[in-house]
Amino acid sequence: MKLAVFSTLVAGAAAFTGPVAFETKSSTALNMAKAFPSKLQYVPCVAVDKLPKPGLATSGVAGGLAICIAVDPSGSVFALGDKCPPVNQPLSFGRVSEGTIEDPVLGTKFSLKTGEVVGPWCPSGIGKLLGGLFEPSGVPVYPVKKAGANIEVQVDVNAKANFESQYWSGVLDAQGKADGKYY
Residue 114 is part of which domain span? Predict the structure, then answer.
């Protein structure tokens, strides 16, 4: 109980402190040992006729990765990771303005070109409380192109396999046996 009260007091104090300068770290690369070599490929993500209107974004999946497809007011299309730091809500619900997309919950703006934080980190409402608990970090960005009736995004098609290779496998593994077969 004392810990809960102490945590609440610390979080409350953090919400009312002045702006703190943080160095933004990019989360555009997975920092882990790779079981499979990187293999960059353009893969279909969303159909061209499913693109949102300028100023909006939508979500898609490319190579097993959640992707946010954003269309800026001038009609340019961008692809970013669809998980907003620090709590991983969908970036595709955000508002797109000239050069940025805004996290719909915490208010952080991310560059459409670099994925880096633009402006204050977690400036709105609950973001002021949560933002002080985490260091600012960007979102990954991906090359995007139109190919026929699809918008394709260049991703490492082995990224999901590399991430999942870090999972423990054994008797209690819900994914199946270590050799990839099911029980």
Answer: 46-170
* Alpha-carbon distance values, 93 to 45, 55, 84, 162 (Å): 17, 11, 10, 28
Tokens 């970036």 map to which residue?
91
CA distance 150 to 152: 6
Dihedral Cα 57, 58, 63, 64, nearest 10 deg: 120
Q: How many CB atoms lie within 10 A of CB 55?
A: 16
Confidence band for 2, pLDDT divided at 50, 70 and 90: low
- Residue 27 and residue 139 in contact, taking contact as beta carbons nearer than 8 Å: yes
Say how far apart CA 78 and CA 142 lie, in whole Å. Answer: 8
Instruction: Answer with the residue of higher pLDDT: 154 or 164.
Output: 154
Contact 47, 151 (CB under 8 A): yes
Tokens 């998980």 found at: 83
For the cut 90, the answer to whether the pLDDT of residue 116 exceeds it is: yes
23 within some domain: no
The answer as to whether 125 is a domain residue is yes
Q: Tell me what pLDDT residue 175 has.
A: 56
